Amino acid sequence: MTIEIKVPVLPESVADATIATWHVKAGDAVKRDQNLVDIETDKVVLEVVAPADGVIGEIINEEGATVLGEQVIAKLEEGGAAKAAPAAKAEEAAAPAKAEAPAAATGASVDIKVPVLPESVADATIATWHVAPGEAVSRDQNLVDIETDKVVLEVVAPADGSLAEILAEEGTTVTAEEIIAKFVEGAGAAAPAAAAAEESDDDNDALSPSVRRLLAEKGVDPAKVKGSGKNGRITKEDVEQYLKGGSAPAAPAKAAAEEAPAVASGERSEKRVPMTRLRKTIANRLLEAKNSTAMLTTFNEVNMKPIMDLRKQYQDSFEKRHGIRLGFMSFYVKAVTEALKRYPEVNASIDGDDIVYHNYFDISIAVSTPRGLVTPVLKDSDTLGMAGIEKGIKELALKGRDGKLSMAELQGGNFTITNGGVFGSLMSTPIINPPQSAILGMHKIQDRPMAVNGKVEILPMMYLALSYDHRIIDGKESVGFLVTVKEMLEDPTRLLLDV
């Protein structure tokens, strides 16, 4: 049976998306809930998982292709996973010969060190070890993630070999160039591939991205969930059934009933995990903004139909010419840049008893990442065209998703734009990003009845929210700024004519 793999339904304020990364290729055997492809919108990355065990029959849209909601991008042949069996058997047959190789070669020992940290970062935290002592690894394979206040650094294997010893466990605070592990070159490089594959199947397939996310959200220990998938793999249905109190293995349940027949089948549990450095930093900065600024929020609304019509008319030609799709964010950035020129107080900041007016326009773009919210900076936005803005935002979003943002890309910024509309937010009061003086919140585009020239029309409307520091920005400037942004978005030709 052929199953169509489709793009998920996109948020209303997102017109289209881009195929970011295919994790499989045509002919690959896949398992239910295995992540097949990452699809990127303006600010979030969506995972598309396999609906069933099978084989990828055809990939219709390659990486970089622009796609729409519910568009068919690949085809899956259900039940075709058995085709991969011969390869597994061949690998299994080859395993004994490999196992006969010496367990430890006489390779050179290498110290694994923390990378050199940026000047403004004093120390870091060991976030995740991806390998265990004795495990064979390949050159450039990621060994460990090291987390600083805002960026995650990857430390890779210097050569083929194996990890001999871990000196700094997860959660340990480390400093630059500190030795965190011992590595042996060549040792165990030819470790049994079948055993490694089997371990990967047990650990990774049983906890595919969607299942792992559901377990984390509900605080469920995977060891307590009985897997009904292939080779005992845990599926989303297994987790949901467990949460309803009906997935405990039969034998243990019977034994438990004999020991304590009066105990209810439901279970109340808690999961305690340390707060990441990024989450601590976010918490401290939000609290600082609340306690050290006189924050106020003003609202307005904008008719998005002119921009939506403009994008529809020129989307294809824009993408052909510039190699990137035309999104909403470039219009937002252009409108904000023009408004900042007219209201310099919004582009200023307070430093002690002084007001610092900036004669440049660096816009922070709030980006949601797996580890939390970061605000990389799009510099000199007044010198960029629409295509330059779109490319800059895409580059920052990809780096943010992969944890590859540098400190230079995260520092500075005179004003922040955050778009909660991609998550469905209708209205919110964004919090200022110190030492900036204001932040603009964009929201969900929603059809609403509006009075136009004495008649009711259904228009795609969006609420704007400007939070600002009242110590430096008065009501006149804040309202004028927001009205300017509204006018620029409702009549995009103003951006071209500078009126």
Overall description:
- The chain has 499 residues and is an alpha+beta fold.
- The protein has 3 domains: 1-76, RNA polymerase II/Efflux pump adaptor protein, barrel-sandwich hybrid domain (OB fold (Dihydrolipoamide Acetyltransferase, E2P), Beta Barrel), CATH 2.40.50.100; 106-183, RNA polymerase II/Efflux pump adaptor protein, barrel-sandwich hybrid domain (OB fold (Dihydrolipoamide Acetyltransferase, E2P), Beta Barrel), CATH 2.40.50.100; 293-494, Chloramphenicol acetyltransferase-like domain (Chloramphenicol Acetyltransferase).
- Helices cover 29% and strands 28% of the residues.
- Strands 17, 20, 23, 24, 25, 26 and 27 form a 7-stranded mixed beta sheet that branches.
- The longest helix has 18 residues, at 305-322.
- It is globular, with a radius of gyration of 27 Å.
- It catalyses: N(6)-[(R)-dihydrolipoyl]-L-lysyl-[protein] + succinyl-CoA = N(6)-[(R)-S(8)-succinyldihydrolipoyl]-L-lysyl-[protein] + CoA.
- This is Dihydrolipoyllysine-residue succinyltransferase component of 2-oxoglutarate dehydrogenase complex.
- Residues 2-77, 109-184 form the Lipoyl-binding domain.
- Residues 247-266 have a biased composition (Low complexity).
